Amino acid sequence: MLKTIEISDETWEKIKDQVGEDFKEIENLQDLIGQKYLFECARYFYYGKVKKVTSDYVELTDAGKVFDSGELDAKSPTDLQKVPGNIFVMRNAIESFWKPKW
């Protein structure tokens, strides 16, 4: 269920540094295409640019496995191992996803 809240311009000015100016509303995984995201799954974390979304998987390019993300607000991960090709993340394995500052 999608929830929407409205805030005043004054409130936005107070919180925009926490949210970021490049805030984009996401309604489905298709909205992620062309952007880099971190996908947290049960066994590994995967990071890369979303190339394609199907009913079964999310394809990431310029991707890698994140073995240690470090602090959540870090400018780079502590241990990111690039893969030589694309990564296909199974949609049913995704626990959460977010856009780190890397």
Topology (elements, then pairings):
Elements: H1 9-19, E1 36-41, E2 45-53, E3 57-68, E4 79-82, E5 87-90, E6 94-98
Antiparallel strand pairs: 1-2, 1-6, 2-3, 3-4, 3-5
What is the total tally of β strands? 6
Name of the top-level CATH class: Mainly Beta
Number of helices: 1
User: Ranges with pLDDT <50 over ≥5 residues?
Assistant: none
CATH topology: SH3 type barrels
The average pLDDT is: 90
Helix content class:
10-25%
What features would you describe in this structure?
By secondary structure, the protein is mostly beta strands. The protein has a single domain, classed as SH3 type barrels, CATH 2.30.30. It has 1 helix and 6 strands. Strands 1, 2, 3, 4, 5 and 6 form a 6-stranded antiparallel β-sheet that branches. A hairpin with a 3-residue loop joins strand 2 and strand 3. The protein is globular and about 45 Å long. The protein starts with 8 loop residues before the first helix and ends with a strand.
Record keyword descriptors for this entry.
single chain; 102 residues; mainly beta; SH3 type barrels; six-stranded antiparallel β-sheet; globular
In short:
This protein is mainly beta and 102 residues long. It is built from one helix and six strands, in the order H-E-E-E-E-E-E. The longest helix is centred in the first third of the chain and has 11 residues, at 9-19.
